[in-house]
Amino acid sequence: MSLKHPQKPPANTRDLAVDPMLTMDGNGIPRHHMPAGETPPEVAYQIVHDELMLDGNARMNLATFVTTWMDPQAQRLMSESFDKNMIDKDEYPQTAELESRCVEILSRLWHAPDAARATGCSTTGSSEAAMLGGLALKRRWQLARRTEGRTADRPNLVMGINVQVCWEKFANYWDVEMRLVPMDGERFHLSAEEAVKLCDENTIGVVAILGSTFDGSYEPVAEICAALDDLQARTGLDIPVHVDGASGAFVAPFIDQDLVWDFTLPRVASINASGHKYGLVYPGVGWIVWRDDDALPADLIFWVNYLGDNMPTFALNFSRPGAQVVAQYYNFLRLGFGGYAKVQGYAREVATRLSAQIEELGPFRLLTRGDELPVFAFTLKDEVTAYTVFDVSNALRERGWQVPAYTFPKDREDLAALRVVVRRGFSHDLADLLLQDLKRQLPKLEAGTRTTGATGDESAFHH
Ligand SMILES: *Cc1c(COP(=O)(O)O)cnc(C)c1O
Known about the structure:
This protein is of the alpha/beta class. The protein has eleven helices and 13 strands. Strand 2, helix 5 and strand 3 form a beta-alpha-beta unit.
């Protein structure tokens, strides 16, 4: 099966062109099929290296949530453990030990009632973690239904339409009906009232997002839980909540300590987070933690040999890199609670200051201010007709900034916005440079030709 983009231009069929200084015979290295013979390592390196220069500067990519800067010491540790396979718990018992310490650290951070019973694992990212969390919800519901002697063939999962694409994948791959709450006016995420309206006896759970990717806002997890408590009191339906904390589960514990969103709420059964987003590790590592071993049905677990002992695993992959898990533990050790609070607090300061400055420029209206996730979305005021948010995004590209523009989903398709994700490594100084560039472009935008709008690319926006 080929997963080629339908709009991809025709492939360049010419052989790779090698700098004549690099090799005596630079001819005949094909581009699209495997060369017949060897290529000297320095030549192979230079070819790949040169081509990747066009990928752009990761630090100027304000579209991604994923970590683009780590301590040099973390890089060293990662290169020392690139050869370790996470699944070989027997061969690499200390890597396995660091993984289980990370799970314990996270379950305490997220207030699991009994950290000794907290259950969880690392994954390749939040997407795999979401699959595992969703599967546990589905299996729990099926088991309960069968115990009651009722059918268990039409499960559904309730969530806001702003969910990340991983939840659409979950529903598609595992035959679960998605029940989506659309956006409404200036409500860009799930509300407790709308969530409960979609719940019935076939609802395996409600997904609440701590940190919507559309605008950085937190969904009201505590209100959603309270509304489900009320539903249970009225109807007997006991519907668990999974918190998709891909970003927020590494932000809120450190800088929103008064926010109630985690296992403190008895209805929260599981939480996922991306170690490679605000967990501050290079891609790809994610985490999932269940509140206790009851929340993860035992028949989903496989047992692998671990130092002659049996070790439980629950994963979609088998082999997986160990380096990211090592780096996650390094970060916990290196930063501690105070360090994480400082890093996330600084990101929020940069985000809120930059959003306020963008608001002052005049043409823009903020949808969010970066005061939840350090992420904000903004659009153009109605009176701005000479250019679109897509033009603004393109104009910023001229200087290398990647600030995505995208249209909102169902019931707010009329709204197109720009979004800035502030991460570790994006300082007040870089924010000032971005602001200057934006300011400089405005008169040109005002005078220039307006594009008709979406380029077709924005529908692929799924970060
Ligand atoms: C990024 C994100 C995901 C997917 O996470 P990956 O780690 O990229 O697989 C899921 N949900 C939310 C809310 C996200 O922000």
